[in-house]
Design goal:
The structure is a single chain. Helix 3 packs antiparallel against helix 4, helix 4 runs antiparallel to helix 7 and helix 6 runs antiparallel to helix 8. The protein has a two-stranded antiparallel sheet with strand order 1-2. The longest helix has 39 residues. The chain is built from 9 helices and 2 strands; from the N terminus they run H-H-E-E-H-H-H-H-H-H-H. Helix content is 62%, strand content 3%. With 285 residues, it is an all-alpha fold.
């Protein structure tokens, strides 16, 4: 005789229940989200269109980024050599960047001692911050740990550091280019599928790409200036916390701003509202 199992004990349905045995209902956003094929096609077209524009503008962007970094190096009187980007290596996924080789002074023992003193002071300052600034204190101490490890490395093995300022700037600009290529497709999965208007979907990607286009040479020109003033000892901190993380945080902020735009729903996408019981009773009367 087949044994009957209650529905709430059926192993095939246990994944639908919470830790207290209650049923886990479908979230209202999943129940109400509609995904018309037209909206998906528009999102794919927007992402592909922006990718095509980036591919066409890639030579101009490569030259412009190199000229901006070089202009700042000249204004700040940073000694070094500059070579224009090699356009024969132009590929969509490989940005040819200008070779900007800065002449940096080595970190003397006195300079490293000064960095070590700053590390100790900042660690103490982080402990003095109020509770409301606790997240900032954690971030500050994380930065202090990174820089302390760098100071220790340069104090013990200064000749073993494999990176140069030229490689740091070139690699950073290539990362920014890769981020620009990925941004339209990230918006396809995180913004274009929602029922925003067409101009809003075009605008959020356009503004984000313009932000990255302007930020990239300015960010790495500032890296070059800091490396010239402080030496290679600050490169790990620049690469880990003040490199590609800066544009990513900006993209997240722009995305959050775009998600707050008013009246995102087009008339054809808004589901019909259910009649309330009082309204239905008034209609029957």
């Amino acid at each position: 005789m087949r044994r009957l199992i209650p529905s709430y004990l059926d192993p095939r349905r246990l994944h639908l229940r919470g830790h207290r045995g209650g049923a886990i209902g479908e979230h209202r956003s999943i129940r109400s989200l509609r995904l018309p094929g037209r909206r998906v096609a528009e999102g794919v077209a927007i992402a592909a269109g922006y990718t095509l524009l980036l591919a066409l503008a890639q030579p101009w962007i490569a030259l412009a980024w190199g000229e901006v970094v070089l202009w700042w190096a000249r204004v700040l009187q940073i000694p070094g050599q500059w070579a224009p980007p090699a356009m024969e290596t132009l590929r969509l996924w490989t940005m040819p960047v200008a070779e900007i080789d800065l002449q940096l002074a080595g970190n003397s023992p006195q300079a490293l001692a000064g960095h070590g003193l700053v590390v100790v002071l900042l660690w103490m300052v982080a402990g003095w911050l109020p509770d409301a600034a606790r997240p900032g204190a954690y971030l500050l101490r994380f930065a202090v740990l990174i820089h302390a490890a760098s100071v220790l490395f340069f104090a013990l093995w200064p000749g073993s550091f494999p990176h140069s300022a030229a490689r740091h700037i070139a690699g950073g600009l290539r990362q920014m280019w890769a981020l620009m290529l990925v941004t339209p497709w990230l918006h396809l999965a995180t913004f274009h599928l929602f029922p925003f208007r067409l101009w809003q979907r075009l605008a959020v990607t356009g503004i984000s790409l313009l932000y990255l286009l302007v930020l990239a040479p300015l960010l790495y020109a500032s890296h070059g200036a800091l490396l010239w003033q402080l030496g290679l000892v600050v490169m790990p901190l620049l690469a880990l916390l003040l490199g590609v993380m800066v544009p990513i945080l900006g993209l997240v902020a722009l995305y959050g701003w775009a998600m707050s735009w008013h009246d995102p729903v087009r008339p054809g996408d808004r589901p019909a509202a259910r009649a309330r019981p009082a309204d239905a009773a008034a209609g029957r009367a």
